[in-house]
Amino acid sequence: MALRVQKYGGTSVADIQRISRVADRVIKAHEAGDQMVVVLSAMAGVTDKLISLARQAAITPDKRELDVLLATGEQTTAALMAILLKSRGYKARSFLGFQAGIHTDQTPGKARILDIDAQKVKKALDQGHICVVAGFQGADNNGDITTLGRGGSDTSAVAIAASLKADVCEIFTDVDGVYTTDPRICAKARKIDRISYEEMLEMAVLGAKVLQIRSVDFAKKYNIPLHVRSSFNEEDGTMVVNESADMESAVVSGITCDMNETRITLKRVPDQPGISAKIFGPLADAEIMVDMIIQNTRTGGETDLTFTVTKDDFDRALQISEAVAKEVGAEEVLSAKDIAKVSVIGLGMKSHSGVAATMFKALAEENINIRLISTSEIRISCVILAKYAELAVRALHAAFGLDGDN
Amino acid sequence: MALRVQKYGGTSVADIQRISRVADRVIKAHEAGDQMVVVLSAMAGVTDKLISLARQAAITPDKRELDVLLATGEQTTAALMAILLKSRGYKARSFLGFQAGIHTDQTPGKARILDIDAQKVKKALDQGHICVVAGFQGADNNGDITTLGRGGSDTSAVAIAASLKADVCEIFTDVDGVYTTDPRICAKARKIDRISYEEMLEMAVLGAKVLQIRSVDFAKKYNIPLHVRSSFNEEDGTMVVNESADMESAVVSGITCDMNETRITLKRVPDQPGISAKIFGPLADAEIMVDMIIQNTRTGGETDLTFTVTKDDFDRALQISEAVAKEVGAEEVLSAKDIAKVSVIGLGMKSHSGVAATMFKALAEENINIRLISTSEIRISCVILAKYAELAVRALHAAFGLDGDN
Known about the structure:
The structure is a homodimer.
Chain A: E1 3-8, H1 16-31, E2 35-40, H2 46-57, H3 63-87, E3 92-95, E4 102-104, E5 113-116, H4 119-126, E6 130-134, E7 137-139, E8 145-147, H5 152-164, E9 168-173, E10 194-196, H6 197-208, H7 213-222, E11 226-230, E12 238-241, E13 254-258, E14 261-270, H8 275-285, E15 290-297, E16 302-310, H9 314-328, E17 332-336, E18 339-345, H10 355-365, E19 372-376, E20 379-385, H11 389-399
């Protein structure tokens, strides 16, 4: 008998028929003797519909109240699923975020889980209930409803799995698992059977979008095996687990491509102590997330400073940069929105040299110019012109031996 | 400075434009210096839509889970109103039922309020917030979401008003107030300016449907003046208040008509002790509410026993009655669905004789045969054939001097 937490995304619960199919799957596992916790997202499209309703009421809806509104989406799905399971003769019980003991900080719209007291869920499980939890939501110290941000149901599921010491947390979605790269870009992309938390984190950050990043963080922290799989078939998907010896054979596990970045360069900035703080302080104050930062020292006590921000933040970041440039005496501000960031990710990089060389060579052979480079322990990213993005992904996929037979 | 609780029904908040108009009204009172609590129903049609969704999931949806589902309706309106008020620059805050401290028993679908701790609302008011409360909902001892039944938002509003010792509880609806009778039946119906809780209770029970009955009970118990008025104009509506000396001048305040009753008669029942229990015990066990009970003793130790139940309960009640009739040896069971109950209601009845005589005479003059009669301290009801209902209402309205000039 295992304790399984299953999370189903919006497309898997888009209507009563699909909710019913999810119920079939849950019942099957329950009948096989497993204790089942089901975490649900809002029905596909509902969250967007609620946001549009809020925008009819106010151009910038108050964040606390928007959370109260959005939380109804998952509440609806959880209640419907419990109704369905009970009508089929099973003991079932819905839990809203706060009822499942999900306690968050007070950051509406992107609250962080502080702790979980899933005792009520545990008790219901022990009484033979199938527990249905509304994902994406929690409550703060004041008892105010909060939401965990897009993809937050993943984090709800992993957090509950951690609290209950579940054997596995299954993330059901509309794809078969995590792929070596985006199959829409590269026909030879293959499903990955096992991947480490670290690699998954890099994949998620860089745009694979299968899992909310924080859910992977959480799973890693509490060592909860994640199984990312399709709700439309019975195939195994991708296991996201602790780094293990057999994984290291693959040097590179996946290639990602992020089209959402923009580049801003301050040219000929006086190279003085404190100059970076003068530039990045105001950006941080404006809550603009800076991704890559690259500084090239020029001769003559000047430097070029380049950084990337998301497309959403571009206009504000550019405005701030131009003001700062004037203040510190930079020559000019250059910017580009037509860029892409391609990355290769793999635990094996730690022990294998030559990954960077292979990457640069593969891009050079396609005549793709690299604008910026950044690296982490298990990732190398290159910024290139957006128009070369797909070509670059396919070239790297082949160069690192990831191409499948299909 | 007054503390006002305002409740708006579904048609008053049917879309963002109407919610915005409600906000105008609330803001106006707030600007005038009043402390404002706004209790909202779900947008018109939403509750029905949710019920139909639940019925797609199960023929008889589980009641606990249905409450979780239905509660999203009021949650949505409350959040939207708070978003709107805040976007206009006012301090506002939404409260779900449990956040407003509405504590109920554990009867899903028609929970009763056990007590209210509106301290959070009080505190927010004192900080200058407009408080927006999701009507219709509360939470029980387990922290489970409950709902208060159709019209439950009225009761939410009155209960909060009682807890906050509000100066007035205003019930905004789509009619101008309480009328002497249904204006759709009698063109000469007039709006009543003041009516006692007792009369309003009789009016509500008998089908005036302006206020949930329990809300009037609550208001009476805590002596909260109710103001029933239209959300579509600024006119005063009907004040529902404690019985006072000046009210007694009107002998009859209103005429009601209930088309939802059916009649069942057991003929020639042996007139023995305990026979009533044998008949009404099984009906009570089946949770069938019996309204009128009339027993006519015949000669020869037999009696005819007649009672009325709602149309919804008719089939089950008839089935039970036929089984019991066989058991106790009654001659036959007669029934009728084409009946109406017309009633005259007035505090003045207590001190004036002749009301019954006037009523019977008015019906007789129209050749309307009375099938059953029942009375309370401030009400006389006659069951007649349904086809005479409108005629009877108009005749009684005129006979008791209620006709207006319009």
